[in-house]
Every structure is written in structure tokens, then in C-alpha cells.
Design brief:
The chain is an alpha/beta fold. It folds into four domains: 20-41 and 163-216, no CATH class; 50-143, OB fold (Dihydrolipoamide Acetyltransferase, E2P), CATH 2.40.50.140; 218-460 and 657-698, Rossmann fold, CATH 3.40.50.300; 464-621, Rossmann fold (3-Layer(aba) Sandwich). It is 40% helix and 17% strand. The chain is globular, with a radius of gyration of 32 Å. Bound molecules: adenosine-5'-diphosphate and magnesium ion.
Length: 698
């Protein structure tokens, strides 16, 4: 590969080629430089490479015909329109234009030879085309030998203009730099990739015999090369970013087997092998003098919390503080309770405290917490978003643990990790995901993180049996609840999600609570929703935990963290409104004890197609990773992650799930190229991400 310096440039589109008005439209399409034009690939193609005799034109087929106008007239019934008859020796075709400038009447007057591309149908006058693509030709004018690309565009920017600009990028003065190769030859060979230049030339101007199917499905080798390049750019950028973060210093926090050992001894269970494996991965990272960036994944109930607790203790036994951040107050509170329960016996003798920070807490309490954190009395701080507020100063923060990391924006995550320890050191970071992320997605979008997966549930879990009930069978559900409560089991009743209105949701929860309290007047019914004060929430949860409440009516706040093993029946109302991961999380609240557990999904007809699919998936599957994969298939990565929140840049061409092989290859090539050809890596990134690069800083 020759290092031509001119090749390093991504060239702006010259003002002489695109007027200011055109450039503004291009901006809308994300086209800023010439290379963006090279990557502005067609949506589809039109076949203008041959002509179809009019007598062979079939209804519903898009074809090109050529003929001479033998009649042309403006008609006024049923509305104003220009109607022409075109004859080609084999037959006659009618063409109609409904909206037209008067100049068209003259252009399409009798005797004019026209080439038409359009879909034929049987109309009022006979075989006709309405608004075909139409232009005047000379007799014998040659046909194009490539398919005609149709590009994505925006209002006011015609295909003709885009085509001209793209053509210029492909064959104009800058073609060498625009089309230069960014992969070493041996990589192309090893991974059987076409050259970049051949691939884009092919996609912009496929020969007439190109397989329409492979082009449409984007499985043609030319498409594979483009998708590979896109995935490679993503991997390069993530790996570079990873390396950059690794280059910072962090306090080395080696395992000392003091507090961690004490916790393990105090637990009523022993770790599963999956938990041991993931903790040893984390432990090793913590002992290094570079910031850890690790994502801990596992299905609902797989026991991530205790692994996080061990990580926290390893930091604390080295004299460093730990912060645990959760996305909701209720989840943060659960953690606070659990960690207090586990850690208090270990901390009390050492005079260490745990601090609590949340947006809703009283000023006075907050002040105390803040000074405990700043002075280093509080070795562990648990809280919500309040944790990354600027006035939270840690004495010696060594580890930040972020639960349900995908609910936080990238910037919030950064803010916490940048609360640097003394002497310019960066704390270690452990992220946890409650929603299992399919492997392909985490390989692609989380390539800047190390990933640990707890792939087995703790022993003794009972399978939850899921039942689908139409809302009309409510009475049967009531009977089941009564039976369960009578034998000492506990029940969740989850109220419907009402996305449009939180007020309405609350109202529904209150009404449900009242109705069920009357129905079950002989049992104790509790109510839990997001608007209760923290104190109220805590006390309801405590009563439920202790078995003083038999039936807990709750909004989806129980989705996260609730851990009451004796609860073995759950009813979810209007299950058809909920997303798959939400249903899976909710259902994960039961099946935690020894009792056989049942989850009843109440749904109301009519069911949309997607709701029907979701219910079927949740009915058929219990494995969170499998559910996540199906969810991804239903919704695509953007929706799966909730792009806007997460700030994750999406892929335009490649689909990590469908293009898994390319993704695997891109991952390997990224490592090689970064190591052996750093300049090519830079050029590849510059091309693909250019201005967009900054958004990848996560
Ligand atoms: P999640 O991964 O969903 O956060 P949790 O950490 O809340 O799961 O764990 C779910 C439940 O399993 C808790 O009650 C926890 O105490 C229990 N648990 C965790 N690890 C084990 C284990 N190795 N053996 C038995 N129970 C365990
Ligand atoms: Mg959890």
C-alpha cells in the first residue's frame, strides 16, 4: 500500500460543483464531503438498459418502452390532464399527466419520440402509464449499459443532481483519493473481500445482468465489502477509544481476600461457577493500574448483585471508595438495603459507613452524606443520578458501579467515571445490564468494553409457567389468587402501563387497588407506585417481604430489583402494552423461591400483530438472551437500545445480527490493522466517521 499523502484527505465538495442551496440539501442527507457521496449508495435501481415492445407490456410490471406520440390532447374530464398516445409499431400505449406545466403540451406534441419508464396498468383508455418517467430521444439513441441508481434524497434535490455529484466523486479529478483502498492486500485475500473501488463502482452502476436479488438483499459481494468496511470503522473506533481509556492510570486494587472473604463466608449460599468466573475477571482488572471498563451481563436473577458487591469490597479493602448508581430510586433503595444487610456486619467494627444520595432526600441528610463522602468516612455511596452532580466530591473514588447502564446516557456515565481520584487517576468502572444483550449487539456496540457474562442461573430456581388469559377470564384469575393466598403464597398484581399519561396510570393503579381490596377483603392488599415517597415505598416493600401483605398491587416499578422469594404468582394486566424486556423483567420477580411459580398475562383484544408476536415470544421462552434476540429481530437495534438515550451511533448498512460473519471478521481485522497498519486505520476511520467521530466517545 503506497502512502500517498493526497490519499489522506477527505475532500470537501467543491463550491463550483454544488451551489450553496444544493450543499444545504446535501447537509440534510449527511453528505459533507466527496467521500460521503461515494458512500451515498442507491436505494434501488431502475432498469433502462432495454426496451419492451408495447404489445408485450404486462400489467403491474415496470418496463421501459419507446415510441412516437401519435395523439396528444388536454382533457378536462374527470379532471384536467394531458393524455398522449404512444405507438411503437407493436401497439399503442396511453400516457397521462395529471399535474403538468403548459410547456409539457408542446414538448409532448404529435411526432415526438419518447422513452418511457413506468408501471403499466389497465386504465380507462386501455393499457396506460400514469406519470411515467419520460424523456424525448432521437431515434436509435443508445441505451445505457448500467442499471440506473435511485438515491435516497430530500425535497428539492433531484435524482439527476445527485447522480451528477456522485458521478463526479467517482470519476472526477479526485477519484484516486476517493476510491483508494484502505485494506492491506493480504487482508483482502484472506477474507475474500473485493476491492473498495470495484465494490462502490459496482453498486453505483451495476451492469444490466447484475443479480437484482443479491442487490436488493444487500448480500452481493460488493455490498459485503461496504458492510465490512462500516463494521471495521466501528470496531476501529471502539478499540481506539478503549486503548485511549486504558492509557489513563487508575489505582491498582489487588484482591486481599479480607472483606471479600468475609462476605463470602457470611452468605447463605455459595457462588455459582459463572459468578466465580466473572468475579475473577473483574478482580484481575481491578488489580491493574489502568481503569477497568467492564460490562457485567446476566439474565434476570442470575446474581449480578453479589458479584458487584465483591468488586466493591475489593476496592474498599484497598482503602478506596466505591459509588453505585442505579437509574431509579426504587432500585437504588433495593441496593442500599441489600448492601447494608451484607456489609454492615463487616463495616461496623471498622467504623465504615454507607452513604445514600438521591434527588428527593432532605437537604440536611444530603449535606451529611456529602461531607461523609468528601471526608472518606463513607466508603460506599449508593444513589441515583444525584451521584454525578458536580458538588459530589469523593475523597478517593476507586470504583464506579453503574447498574442498568443502558438507561443512562453516555454523558452521565462519563461524568461519573471522570470524577477522578487524586493525582489524575481515573476510577475503575463496572457496568451492569439487567437486560440481556444479544451477543452480536454487544460485540458490535460495546466493543469498547470488556464483557463478562453470567451464563447460568443459581441452582434451585423453579421454572415459571406462563399463561395467557384474555381479559374476559378475569374471574378465573381471581379464583387462582384466592387459592394461592389461602395456602400462604404471595401475589403480585401489575397494573397496566399507560404511556400517554402518568396521571391516568396512577388513577388506574388506585382503582385496581380499591377493587381488589374489596374482592379480597379477607387478605391484606398493598399498593406500590412511583409517586409514593421513598419512606412509603420502603415500608410497603418491607411489609411484602415479611409476608404481612399477601397481594401487592403495583405499577411497573416492581420491574427492577424486587426480590421476594415467597411471591410465586404474578398477574400482569394489559400485557399486550408492554415491551418484551419489561415483561421478562417483571416475570423475573417470581420463580425465586421453592414454590412452582405462575405468571398470568392478561391481554385485551384486539391485538396488534406485533403485540401478538411479543406475547407469543414471552409465552414460549424463558431465557432472557433468547428473548432479547427475538426482540432485536422484531425491533432492530435502534429501538432495542433506545438510541436517543444511549447516544450509540447506529450502523447504516450492516446489521450485526444478519452480518455476524462479517462482524467477526471485522473484529479480527481491526486488531491487525491497528497493530500493523495504524495509518491505514486512521484513514479508514477518517473516511467513515470523519465529523461523526466525536459522537463515538463514550
Ligand atoms: P440480578 O442478576 O437480577 O441482579 P440478583 O443479584 O438480584 O439478580 O440475585 C437474585 C437472587 O438470587 C437474590 O435473591 C440473590 O441473593 C440470589 N443469589 C445470587 N447468587 C446466588 C447463588 N450463587 N446461589 C443462590 N442464590 C443466589
Ligand atoms: Mg439486579
Amino acid at each position: 500500500m503506497k502512502g500517498n499523502s493526497k490519499n489522506n484527505l477527505v475532500l470537501p465538495i467543491a463550491a463550483s460543483f454544488a451551489s450553496k442551496a444544493v450543499q444545504e440539501k446535501l447537509d440534510k442527507l449527511g453528505i459533507i464531503n466527496e467521500f460521503d457521496l461515494v458512500l451515498h449508495l442507491p436505494l434501488r435501481y431502475e432498469d433502462e438498459t432495454h426496451l419492451c415492445p408495447i404489445s408485450n407490456v404486462l400489467e403491474g410490471k415496470t418496463v421501459q418502452v419507446e415510441g412516437v406520440i401519435i395523439h396528444s390532447e388536454v382533457m378536462y374530464r374527470p379532471r384536467r390532464q394531458l393524455v398522449c398516445q404512444v405507438e411503437d409499431g407493436s401497439g399503442i400505449l396511453f400516457i397521462r399527466f395529471l399535474n403538468f406545466y403548459s410547456s409539457l403540451i408542446k414538448t409532448y406534441s404529435v411526432g415526438a419520440r419518447v422513452r418511457l419508464l413506468g408501471e403499466a396498468r389497465l386504465g380507462f383508455f386501455g393499457t396506460e402509464m400514469v406519470h411515467p418517467k419520460c424523456h424525448i430521444v432521437r431515434e436509435g439513441m443508445p441505451l445505457p449499459d448500467a442499471l440506473t441508481p435511485v438515491y435516497p434524497t430530500t425535497a428539492g434535490l433531484s435524482q439527476a443532481v445527485i447522480r451528477k455529484l456522485v458521478r463526479r466523486a467517482l470519476i472526477g479529478d479526485n477519484r484516486v483519493s476517493n476510491l483508494s483502498e484502505t485494506l492491506p492486500n493480504k487482508t483482502l485475500k484472506r477474507y475474500r473481500l473485493n476491492s473498495f473501488k470495484d465494490s462502490v463502482m459496482f453498486l453505483h452502476q451495476p451492469p444490466s445482468n447484475a443479480s437484482a436479488h443479491l442487490l436488493q438483499e444487500r448480500t452481493h459481494p460488493a455490498w459485503c465489502r461496504i458492510k465490512f468496511d462500516e463494521l471495521l470503522a466501528q470496531q476501529l473506533s471502539m478499540r481506539l477509544h478503549y486503548q485511549q481509556r486504558r492509557s489513563h492510570s487508575a489505582p491498582a486494587l489487588p484482591g486481599r481476600n479480607e472483606l471479600t472473604k468475609a462476605l463470602l463466608e457470611s452468605l447463605s449460599f455459595s457462588l455459582t461457577s459463572a459468578q466465580r468466573k466473572t468475579f475473577s475477571e473483574i478482580s484481575r482488572n481491578l488489580s491493574e493500574a489502568h481503569p477497568m471498563q467492564r460490562l457485567l451481563q446476566g439474565d434476570v436473577g442470575s446474581g449480578k448483585t453479589v458479584v458487584a458487591a465483591l468488586a466493591a469490597l475489593q476496592a474498599i479493602e484497598n482503602g478506596y471508595q466505591v459509588a453505585i448508581m442505579a437509574p431509579t430510586e426504587i432500585l437504588a433503595e433495593q441496593h442500599y438495603q441489600k448492601f447494608s444487610h451484607w456489609f454492615a456486619p463487616l463495616f461496623d467494627s471498622l467504623g465504615i459507613t454507607i452513604a445514600w444520595l438521591s434527588g428527593s432526600q432532605k437537604r440536611k441528610h444530603r449535606q451529611t452524606a456529602l461531607s461523609d463522602i468528601a471526608e472518606g468516612n463513607a466508603m460506599l455511596t449508593i444513589g441515583t443520578h444525584a451521584l454525578f452532580q458536580e458538588h459530589v466530591e469523593f475523597n478517593k473514588l476507586g470504583l464506579a458501579i453503574i447498574d442498568e447502564q443502558h438507561r443512562f446516557g453516555v454523558h452521565q456515565r462519563l461524568a461519573l467515571s471522570m470524577k477522578s481520584t487524586k493525582a489524575g487517576m481515573v476510577p475503575h468502572q463496572l457496568m451492569m445490564s439487567a437486560t440481556p444483550i444479544p451477543r452480536t449487539l454487544s460485540m458490535s456496540y460495546y466493543a469498547d468494553l470488556d464483557v463478562s457474562v453470567i451464563d447460568k442461573l443459581p441452582p434451585g430456581r423453579t421454572q415459571v409457567v406462563t399463561k395467557l388469559f384474555a381479559d374476559t377470564r378475569r374471574d378465573e384469575v381471581i379464583v387462582r389468587i384466592r387459592e394461592a393466598c389461602c395456602v400462604g403464597k404471595q401475589v403480585y398484581w401489575v397494573c397496566p402501563l399507560i404511556e400517554e399519561s402518568e396521571v391516568l396510570q396512577l388513577k388506574t393503579a388506585l382503582e385496581t387497588y380499591e377493587t381488589l381490596s374489596l374482592t379480597f377483603s379477607d387478605f391484606k392488599v398493598g399498593l406500590l407506585h412511583g409517586r409514593l415517597s421513598s419512606q412509603e415505598k420502603l415500608s410497603v416493600m418491607e411489609l411484602f417481604k415479611q409476608g404481612d401483605i399477601q397481594l401487592l398491587v403495583a405499577t411497573t416499578v416492581v420491574e427492577v430489583g424486587m426480590d421476594v422469594p415467597n411471591a410465586s404468582l404474578m398477574v400482569i394486566e394489559h400485557a399486550e402494552r408492554m415491551g418484551l424486556s419489561q415483561l421478562h423483567q417483571l416475570r423475573g420477580r417470581i420463580g425465586r423461591g421453592i414454590e412452582a411459580s405462575v405468571c398470568i398475562l392478561l391481554y385485551q383484544r384486539p391485538l396488534s400483530e406485533i403485540a401478538c408476536k411479543r406475547l407469543q415470544i414471552i409465552f414460549e421462552h424463558t431465557d432472557g438472551f433468547e428473548i432479547a434476540r427475538q426482540d432485536l429481530r422484531l425491533r432492530g437495534p435502534g429501538e432495542f437500545f433506545g438510541v436517543r438515550q444511549s447516544g450509540i451511533p447506529m450502523l447504516r448498512f450492516a446489521d450485526p445480527e444478519r452480518d455476524e460473519t462479517l462482524l467477526n471478521d471485522a473484529r479480527c481485522v481491526a486488531e491487525e490493522v491497528l497493530r500493523d497498519y495504524p495509518e491505514l486505520a486512521q484513514r479508514h476511520l477518517q473516511r467513515w466517521l470523519g465529523e461523526k467521530r466525536k459522537y463515538l466517545r463514550a
